[in-house]
Each structure stands twice: as structure tokens, then as C-alpha cells.
Write a structure and sequence with these properties.
Helix content is 47%, strand content 18%. The protein is of the alpha+beta class. The longest helix has 40 residues, at 3-42.
């Protein structure tokens, strides 16, 4: 071998080595990005945050043209866990809730491995509500304990992006992490909901109210807006329990909570305070507007008799106390401010009852 041939071979070897080194670097970078994305899924602190990371987060991380998520939710439980409360975010446009995943992704019926192939409008439009000229797709089944609980869907405008079988193992591993994260997030949401929810009425409980009250007072101070509290109490509730039994009393409270819910805004904070007492916090609302809402609630409750389990319709009325907290930047003790607001609403409630019941009264400073 002459010197020129030797030099050419060395040059080719150097190029191959450089190409292999670059490929290894890219693979290492891809592995690190994938690991970071998986950790973000596992560390999502709320169900809402996880859904965002499974859709918009995946789309950004893997430079996709579309990323959607299908979740099996036949009993609407997960959707109820995501119902907006106060300042929490609303529904996700890229998340689809269905009774059965197989109905919208028949390609996954045959197995539990990712499906890669060309985009077919007939089969894939339901999975990608805005197809956006997609050419290839990857459908990742999310399974837990042999159950198909969802489907993570990637779409690309590149025809060859998801046609190779080489990426199946990586996508399968990602699907396993996503399924575990989804199940964990739903279970955490259930625990949070059960800890802050009154089992009888489905409203938030006193513990939740105490937490949110301080948050709303802090926002009130920060944004210089008022916060109004409604304290609602069922008139002559003891006589209902005495005459008809506690089961009838429970049913009355359930119907009352439903009636009040129809009058308040999604941004208001509603809670069962204890016994037959309910509290509604009205962020950004003064006492005058709160009084109007309280009158509307009082009239709605009194408008129609309540249906008891075993008896004729029962007329029901409520009394309501209204109190307002005005923002004060110098006020630092939010716990005391919350206790004072509830106490003022309670005093106003007592005035409404002592004045004949089925009435609304405002606190002196409101």
C-alpha cells in the first residue's frame, strides 16, 4: 500500500470515527432529554400539571407537530377531579375523555405495543382534532394492570418520522412511565378531593375553606379588592330531623347544596361549614353585590318545596349573614382576619334569624 492510499484510508477512518462520535453524542443528548422528560412526568405535583406535560410538554420536547392524550373515563370521575375551582385552570384542548380507548384508537386493540404508521384521516381524526397536515403518527397505549387506561398520540408532518420500527422500544418505555404517572396523579387527586370534600353534599369542607380563606385574603390584600362572605343556615333544621329523621335531614342538605350551587359563580368558594351551615366566599365582590346574591339564594331556596325520601314536599327557608373584608396592606395576620370575617358573617346571620328567619342581614361594617 502506497503512501497516498494509506492517507486516504486514514482520512476515511477519521471521518467514520467522527461520525460515530457525533452519533454517540446525539444519542447521549437524546437519552438525557428523554430521562429529564420522564422525571418531569413522575414529579408532576397535580393532575392538571401532568396533563399539560403529556401534551404541550411532549410537543415541545420532541419537536412534534401534534401531541394529544386520550383518557378512559367512563364514569366521568377524572373530569370531576379537574373541574375548575377558583383560580385553577380549565380543561385541556389536547386531552380527550372517552368511555373506551378502543373506540377511538382501534389500531391498539390487537396489542399493547406502540403503533407507528402513516396518518389516516379515517382512523386518526378523532385522536388529532386539528390534524394540521400530519403525515405520520405514533400511538402509545397506556396500560396499568392489563387495563388500557389511555393513549398518548404523537403526530408529525414528516412522512418518515414514525414509520421506522427502531423507535418502538423507546416509545414503549415512555408509555410505561406516562401510564404510571397518570395513575399516580389520579390517585393523588382522589386523596386531595377526599380530604377537602364533604361526603354528604359533595361540597368542599371546613378544612378546605380555612385554607382557601387565607389564600383569598392574601389576594384581596395584594390586588386591593374586597372579599365578601355569606354564612347560610337552614331555618328550623332541628325540627326536620326530629319529625322526619336524620336521613331526611341529610337529603335536605344535599338538595340545598345543589340549589345554592346553581346561584354562585365558578370562581366563588363554597363549603359546608358544619351541620346545616354553609359558607360562600365571593372574591373581588363587595357587600352590596354579595347581599344581592344572598337574596337570590334565599329566594331560590324558598321558591319550591324540597322532596324528602318518604313524605310530602317540605317548604324550606334559609337565613343568610353577609360580611365584607376590605383590603389593608398593613394587615399581616391573615388567620385572625379570616376568623374576624367569619365571626362578622355569623353575627349578621344571627340578626337575620332573630328578625324572623328567611331573611338576609349585613354586618355593621358592611
Amino acid at each position: 500500500m502506497d503512501t497516498d492510499d494509506h492517507e486516504r484510508e486514514m482520512t476515511q477512518l477519521r471521518r467514520r470515527l467522527a461520525a460515530l462520535t457525533e452519533e454517540a453524542r446525539k444519542n447521549d443528548d437524546a437519552w438525557r432529554r428523554a430521562q429529564a422528560r420522564e422525571m418531569e412526568l413522575l414529579e408532576a405535583d397535580t393532575l392538571d400539571a401532568l396533563l399539560e406535560r403529556l401534551t404541550a410538554g411532549m410537543r415541545a420536547s420532541y419537536r412534534l407537530d401534534a401531541a394529544t392524550l386520550v383518557i378512559a373515563d367512563p364514569d366521568h370521575e377524572i373530569r370531576r377531579l379537574l373541574v375548575p375551582q377558583g383560580r385553577h385552570s380549565g380543561p385541556h384542548a389536547d386531552v380527550l375523555f372517552v368511555d373506551s380507548v378502543h373506540g377511538v384508537a382501534p389500531a391498539l386493540a390487537a396489542g399493547r405495543r406502540p403503533w407507528l404508521g402513516r396518518f389516516n384521516p379515517t382512523d386518526h381524526t378523532l385522536l388529532f382534532p386539528t390534524p394540521d397536515a400530519l403525515e405520520s403518527v405514533a400511538l402509545l397505549p397506556l396500560t396499568r394492570q392489563e387495563r388500557l387506561i389511555g393513549c398518548l398520540n404523537f403526530g408529525s408532518r414528516e412522512r418518515e418520522r414514525f414509520l421506522s420500527v427502531l423507535g418502538t422500544d423507546f416509545l414503549h418505555h415512555l408509555a410505561v412511565i406516562a401510564a404510571f404517572s397518570l395513575e399516580s396523579a389520579v390517585n393523588r387527586a382522589r386523596l386531595v378531593r377526599s380530604g377537602f370534600t364533604d361526603a354528604l353534599t359533595g361540597w368542599h369542607n371546613r378544612r378546605y375553606l380555612q385554607s382557601r380563606l387565607q389564600e383569598e385574603l392574601a389576594r384581596c390584600r395584594r390586588e386591593r379588592t374586597p372579599l365578601t362572605c355569606l354564612m347560610i343556615d337552614v331555618d328550623h333544621f332541628k325540627s326536620v330531623n326530629d319529625r322526619f329523621g336524620h336521613l331526611a335531614g341529610d337529603e335536605l342538605l344535599r338538595q340545598l347544596a345543589h340549589c345554592i350551587s346553581g346561584e354562585v359563580r365558578g370562581s366563588d368558594v363554597s363549603a359546608r361549614y358544619g351541620g346545616e351551615e354553609f359558607v360562600v366566599l365571593l372574591p373581588g365582590t363587595g357587600a352590596a353585590a354579595g347581599f344581592v346574591l344572598a337574596e337570590r339564594i334565599r329566594a331560590a331556596v324558598a321558591a319550591e318545596p324540597f322532596e324528602l325520601p318518604a313524605g310530602s314536599p317540605l317548604p324550606v327557608t334559609v337565613s343568610i349573614g353577609v360580611a365584607e373584608h376590605s383590603p389593608a396592606l398593613e394587615e399581616r395576620d391573615l388567620k385572625s382576619a379570616g376568623e374576624r370575617l367569619l365571626a362578622l358573617a355569623d353575627v349578621a346571620l344571627y340578626e337575620a334569624k332573630s328578625g324572623g328567619r328567611n331573611a338576609v342581614a349585613r354586618a355593621a361594617n358592611s
